[in-house]
Please model this.
Amino acid sequence: MGGAQVRKLPPAGTIEMAPSILSADFSRLADHIAEVADQVRILHLDVMDGHFVPNITIGPVVIKWLRRHFDLFFDTHLMISDPGKYAPEFIQAGSDGITFHPEAVSEAPAMIRRLRELGVSVGVSIKPKTPVESLAAIIGDVDMVLLMTVEPGFGGQSFLPESPARCAKIKNLLRSDQRLEVDGGINTETAPIIVQAGADTLVAGHSIFGRADPAAAVKAIHEAALGAEKNIRIIDTDFHRFSNDL
Model:
């Protein structure tokens, strides 16, 4: 149902950066994305409806025009109250993966089946206050789980201190072929910690597009994450001090 080519998530086993356009300069959106496009394989698209979360962002028309310029995997995160109604429009516009919130649907298994029928990668996401255990019945049927490491709705928030423990719980429920994505407060200091907890797909907005050199920011966060992957160790630190403002 999507474009001429439906792109797949990178195979599990790699650390991937997924820049979020939520923090990009929308007056020159394509140019801003182009600054990082040759360094990443995933572009994260936050869709908010002002109801499920307290903000309104983009619709399918933005994705349609971006698709004409970029061959990246479009990772579309539907933070909306009726994802089943609108998912086909986003797929038609060029989304390659749809991540929805089980909190927003009455029958998550049915939603997963519907997305499979539409031919895209399927992800589920949970808010910080939603128990990890709520994923147990559906986690085996998705390609990726997205853990929100801030309250969804706005960019530039601080990394929540309970996130590494929650990430580790989810990782223990996943197969080796499933990805674990995190979104919120990800920067050079938090990336190593969350990767050690099991994350392999890092969404970052403000810490990339809020910098003078977005390409250098992507490289720095990625290198920090790769260092953590290669040198798993216990870090004794105060998670409360981490923020996208660092």
In short: Residues 232-246 have pLDDT under 50 and may be disordered.
